[in-house]
Amino acid sequence: MSSVASWNAVEPELVDRCASVLGTVPGVRGVGDLRLRWIGHALWAEAEVVVSGELTVSQGHDIAEQARHALLHDVPRLTSALVHVDPADGHGVDHHAEVAHHWVPWKRPTP
């Protein structure tokens, strides 16, 4: 399930479109955080995609680049996209634990 935040009045339809595009990329098992913002008349995206934890770094990077490429082609006015890869390892490992104590404005703090 994705956690979505947008600044500068990004239309919910654009957020949904980005999530849909990411979900169609081969190798993407899920979409995590997805953030969109307007910079002037250009749209920028930051996204987390979940991939198999068994992939090599190169394979994960290739999927991230395919996801970025798909976003840039399919989302109007999108000029920049950063795609972060999270492994789906199924072993209960929190790969973000190192920075979890930092407050992130678009996420609710966990109790």
Detailed description of the structure:
The protein is α/β, with parallel strands linked by helices and 111 residues long. Helix content is 27%, strand content 32%. It contains 2 helices and 4 strands. It has a 4-stranded mixed β-sheet with strand order 1-2-3-4, with helices on one face. Strand 2 and strand 3 form a beta hairpin. Helix 1 crosses helix 2 (57-74). It is globular and about 40 Å long.
Task: Please describe the structure with a list of short key phrases separated by commas or semicolons.
27% helix; four-stranded mixed sheet; 111 residues
Helix/strand layout:
Blueprint: E1 4-7, H1 12-23, E2 30-39, E3 42-52, H2 57-74, E4 78-88
Parallel strand pairs: 1-2, 3-4
Antiparallel strand pairs: 2-3
Structural class of the helix and strand makeup? Answer: alpha/beta
Q: Provide a count of the helices.
A: 2
Mean pLDDT: 86
Poorly predicted runs: none
Q: In percent, how much strand structure appears in the residues?
A: 25-35%
Largest sheet geometry: 4 strands, mixed
| Strand runs, count | 4
What would you say about this model in short?
The protein is of the alpha/beta class and 111 residues long.
